[in-house]
Amino acid sequence: MNSQAARLLSLDAFRGFVMLLMASSGLGLAQMAARNPESSIWQAIGWQVSHVPWQGCALWDLIQPSFMFMVGLAVPLSLRRRLAEGQPKLGIALHALIRAVVLVLLAVLLSTRAADKQTQWIFTNVLAQIGLGYVPLVLLVAMGWEYCLAAVVVILIGDAAWFLTHSAPSAETLKALATLQTPPEGKLEGFFSAWSIHTNAAAEFDRWLLNLFPRAEVFVANSGGYQTLNFIPALATMLGGALTGHFLMRPTLALRQKWRTLVIAGLSLLAVGALLGWFACPIVKRIWTPSWAVFSSGWVLLMLACFYGLVEIRGWRRAAFPFAVVGSNSIFIYVMHSLCAGWIGQQLAKHGMAGIFGSSWGPVWERGSILLVLWLMCLWLYRQRAFLRI
Q1: pLDDT tens column, 105-147
Q2: Residue 284 phi/psi, 5° resolution?
């Protein structure tokens, strides 16, 4: 196996770990926590596999930034390969545009459920967020790492400034929002009130944008507080991945030097993100605040460093294989989980698993069994050398 392939194995393994975490649906641990409300241990576990209501960070909140970070990391690697093959820059840009459109449309498809009577034009799905930021991501990477770094700074400062200077919603909007059930944690006060749920700048933009599309009723707010324009600060996360990709491609540095740099950068971003969260803007994943972009990137780098160290330095290549199988077909498992997880569970229950799924540990067995089926699908595709590409 050549050095390029060896270098990519840890990246595929980490990407696969992230996708398996997503496809596991928390392995039913949140449901187990709900069944054991008196257990502080179960409550701590359940909290980690659930999204925080507004401020803060749990393990489950790190899935999306990890996925988006790895998308950015792959771009400089892919771009270098395409240019080495002699592909024209115009063709590469056109491919990026087509991929972006397909990702957004696929996200809309996945957001439209069977019970919906018309297309749900919603753009908060992770695929839509990637698609909306993909073209500027590729263009900035093609311009060079200096432009990527400058763009990260401009995006994060500009996003914070926009939220701070946004005027309060109208009385009519506030009246409509009063009918919604909102988490008390989402209502911030003082300087941080600019990032409150449903009344922030991005929420106001969605009340304009989403009502331009055909809808069964007027859009007022996303129940979870997620916003379309999250893709702009999330672009900073993807650009952070691109900068990491540029760094990992440097041939002059030893593996251990790269690993140490990943660890130091991860710890530094965690510290900076925490400081920003205390003094500049709250750490909120649901609207991808600048402090969240920095803080979550620190965690992603530390997790990536673990895989990089274990696979590339320790040589745990066989142990990485189950993750790499999924990481090489990340779009496939995402789509299959979104469309078929419920159906897979129903079929397993019909064919002998109903009793196990109904036991005291039933949620764990059910989610684990669905995950195993999805992994076996990825394994079969991997052995057929079949990879879903967009």
Answers
A1: 999 999 998 888 899 999 999 999 999 999 999 999 999 999 9
A2: -130, 115
Token pair of 210 as six digits? 């989403």
Is residue 4 very low, low, confident or very high in pLDDT (cuts 50, 70, 90)?
Answer: very low
Instruction: Report the predicted TM-score, pTM, of the whole model to 2 decimal places.
Output: 0.94
Within 10 A of 39 (CB to CB), how many other CB atoms are there? 13
Q: Name the CA dihedral angle for 295, 300, 302, 308, rounded to a multiple of 10 degrees.
A: -160
- pLDDT on residue 171: 87
Using CA atoms, how far apart are residues 120 and 123, in angstroms rounded to an integer? 9
Whole-angstrom distance, CA of residue 374 vs CA of residue 379: 9
Q: How far apart are CA 252 and CA 318, in angstroms?
A: 27
Rounded-to-10 torsion of CA 101, 144, 126, 207: -80
Residues 213-220 have a mean pLDDT of 92
Please tell me the predicted confidence (pLDDT) of residue 1.
36
**What amino acid occupies position 366?**
E
Q: CA angle at residue 279 from 273 to 281, to 5 degrees? A: 70
Retrieve residue 187's tokens. 């209502």
pLDDT tens per residue, range 291-338: 999 999 999 999 999 999 999 999 999 999 999 999 999 999 999 999
Query: Residue 55, SS3?
Result: strand
Two tokens at 344?
A: 């897979």
| DSSP letter, residue 381 | H
Burial 278-290 (b: 16+ CB within 10 A, else e): eebbbbbbbbbbb
Is 120:108 a contact under the CB 8 Å cutoff? Answer: yes
Chain-centroid distance, C-alpha 112: 19
Selection from 246, 296, 289, 245 nearest residue 269 by Cα: 296
Going through 158-206 in order, the beta strands assigned E by DSSP cover none
Backbone angles phi, psi at 125, to 5 degrees: -55, 145
Mean pLDDT of all residues in the chain? 94
Structure tokens at 10: 């840890």
Band (36; pLDDT cuts 50, 70, 90): very high
Cα 208 from chain centre: 25
Instruction: State both tokens at 39.
Output: 């257990």
Q: Are 73 and 242 in contact (CB under 8 A)?
A: yes
Residue of 353, 351, 382, 381 whose CA lies nearest to 367:
353
